Each structure stands twice: as C-alpha cells, then as structure tokens.
Amino acid sequence: MRDLKHLIAFEKLLEEANNPLVRQAKEEGLKALGYTCYFMPEVLLDLPGCFSVRLRAPGCTSPDIATYYLSGRVCHYGRSLFERALEGGYNFLDAQMATETCTVTCRFQEHLGYMDVIQNPDFFVDFTDVPFKKTKNAIDHYKTELQYHVLNPLHEKFGIDTSDEAIRKAIEQHNEVCNLIQEIGSYRKLDNPTITGFEFQIIQLVSLTCPKHLILPMLRETAKEMKTRKPDKKPTYRCKVILAGSECDDPYFTQLIEGCGALVVADRHCYGSIESRVPIEIQDGEDALEAVARHYLKTSQCPRFMPQDDMRARKQFLADLAKEYKADGIIVESNKFCEYWSYERTIDTIILPRDFGIPVCSIEKEYINGASGQLRTRFQAFVESIEIKKIQEAI
To answer: Distance between CA atoms of 304 and 98, rounded to whole angstroms?
Structure first.
C-alpha cells in the first residue's frame, strides 16, 4: 500500500513525551496535564487553556532507579513511567491528574506528588476516586469526584474555564477526534484492510499524546487520504487477530505480531481505540459533566469491574468484536505483575475458546519489549494453529 503522508511524522512524535507539538502548545501558554488511565476523562483535560497528555515511557530500557522506589515485583509499566520522570522526561507537565484505579500507577503518581520529581514550581498531583460499579449512585459519586479533584483544581490553580459551556466545547472537539479515529479504523473491517494495525496504533497514540487542536488537521488529512487508499493486490497476512489486554503503548509490539503473519484489526487494550474513541453523547436533561461521568463508566471494559455480569459481558464484547472485524483469533496480553489483567487474561484464555470457539494466544510480557525472539515464536505458532483450524473446518 502507498505510504500515509503523515505516518513518519506521527511516528517521530511518539519518540518522546515532550514532543514538538507539546512544546508548541506550551509556547502558546497552554497547561500540560498528564494522566495514565482511561478513567481520567481526557476530555476534561482538554478544556480551553490546557491539553491532555497520556503518559508513555518511549525509549526506556531499564527502570533500575524506579525499581529502588517501587520494588521489582510491581508492573514494569509503572516503573518505566517513574524512571522517565526521574530522568526529567515529564518536567513539561503542569499537573498530573491521577486516578485511584491501578495500584502501580497510583504509586507512580503518589511519588510524583511527594518526591518533588517534576521540576516545575506550579506542578501538582490530584487523585480522583473511581467506583467499582456502574450504577446510578456510582455515576453520581464519580461526577462529584471529577468536580472536586479535576475541575475545581484546574479553575483555582490555573484559571481554567470549567463551566458547562466549556465542557460542551471540549466534548465537541473530543468527538471530532473520535469520529476521525473511528473512520480511519473502519477500514480494518474490510475483507482486505487498507491499513495495518501498526499504522493505526501510531495514529491512535498520537491522538492520545498530542494537543488535540494541533494534531486534528493531520488526522483530518489522514482520514481523507484513507478514502482513496488501495490495498495490496495480494494480502501479506495469514490471519486476522484482535489485540486485547493491559497497557500496550508500543506500536512495535504490534509490528512484531504482524511480522509473524497476523494482521491486528482491533485494539481492545488500555491504549486502544475501541473504548477511548467512542463519541460522548449528552442525553436529555444531563449537564455536560454528568454525561462525561456516565460515558466513561458505562463504556469501560476494564477488569476492575468484578461482578459476574460485567465479567461475562466483557467476554461477549470480545466475541462480538471478533465477528465485527472478521478476526480469526485473539491475542490477550498483560504486563507482568498486572493485578487486574493477569486474572482477566487467564479467564479469557479459558472462556473464549470454550464458549465462543475463538482461538486465544495468552501473553505475559514486560512493558519493555526485550524478549522479541520468544514472542515471535509464540505468535508464529499461534498463526499456524489458526491455519490448521481453518483447514480442519474446511474438511
């Protein structure tokens, strides 16, 4: 396929958290607000006068210093983020808007708050408590938390307009990003997709890590370009898969999978688009903040929701996703020591093949992709098993 115009530029933007577009927004006087989890609504961090940056640790090779503070028996993701913070990689941040969700990212953000790691005199950390249920009471509680731990601090410390009108304006911009990403991602549903998982993940990641008003023109051009992009005459893949699981912000992990013959056609992981790029709808009688609180709780497929009906619904969701995207199998990954996804991955490995007939490849990995040879062997074997299954079904 013909190369996408902005793909190389997008890829370069992912080489560091403080990328050129982030620096440009800072020069414009906007406040940079970091976050790590879907439950910190990025739309509230994109209010006029500020912009959201979902934190990654590109280029981190070994979180040795962070391990001293966080222990070697916690998720590599949190340690890698803290290592990058200790190296000065997040000094551009004006605030870290944290959530009481994943234990390791909580500890990382706590350390940012009390260790004076970020060299910015105005920097602060504030935590939002996120419910473990999706009931009306939970939505009300979440809304209150977002008011007191996101909107109020932004208004008091930085003078950000947090009115209902301002939130609606942010939702409008957020929904445009969502619609563009969904449009680009829809080409993965084709019998012969016109975009690879590697390309799509790069596009999705820049939408999470760059100021929206600066990345939007490039996303619009890419969406327009996709309308006339032609697929390869002969598919280069041997099967299609969904990549599901925990934090996965490394497009080269997806590239490794695709190098083994499995085209990644959907991304239901923490940095994926399946949840984060669903437009926010404001229902009749709702104020904008209530719509945000309802949206993020209701759309989440996070395994921290433990009731049996939620657990079963997540399996059905993946099965429906496989049907929608014509996937032949699912790769479920979790970072080592990830408390939520370790359980979820184990359950998925049993339930999806047994109840839905979907082949599953279960992978436990480090945040830093150092075991590429072993992973390549696993993925190649999984692709071959899918091919054998197709042959057997055809007999």
So the answer is: 16
In terms of Cα–Cα distance, which of 321, 311, 347, 317 is closest to 332? 347
Quick one: tokens of 322? Answer: 């496989």
Number of neighbours of residue 185 by Cβ within 10 angstroms = 23
Pick the CATH number of 234-394 from 1.10.630.10, 3.10.450.350, 3.40.50.11460, 3.40.50.11900: 3.40.50.11900
User: What's the confidence (pLDDT) of residue 339?
Assistant: 82
In tens, the pLDDT along 39-70 reads 999 999 999 999 999 999 988 888 889 999 88
> What distance in Å separates the CA atoms of residue 138 and residue 218, rounded to the nearest whole number?
37
81 vs 347: CA distance, rounded Å: 28
Q: For the domain bounded by 25-160, which CATH number is listed?
A: 3.40.50.11890
Q: Is the pTM of this model over 0.90?
A: yes
Neighbours of 209 (CB within 10 A): 23
Whole-angstrom Cα distance, residue 164 to residue 255?
A: 42
Burial of 323 (0-12, 13-18, 19+ CB in 10 A): exposed
List, in order, residues 6 or more apart from 61 with CB less than 8 Å away: 368
Q: Can you give the residue ranges of every domain in the chain? A: 25-160, 234-394
Q: Do domains 25-160 and 234-394 have the same CATH topology?
A: yes
Q: What pLDDT is attached to residue 370? A: 59
Looking at the chain, list the stretches that DSSP marks H as alpha helix, in order from N- to C-terminal side. Answer: 7-13, 20-27, 42-45, 64-70, 76-86, 103-114, 136-146, 152-158, 164-186, 197-209, 212-226, 251-259, 273-276, 288-299, 308-324, 339-356, 372-394
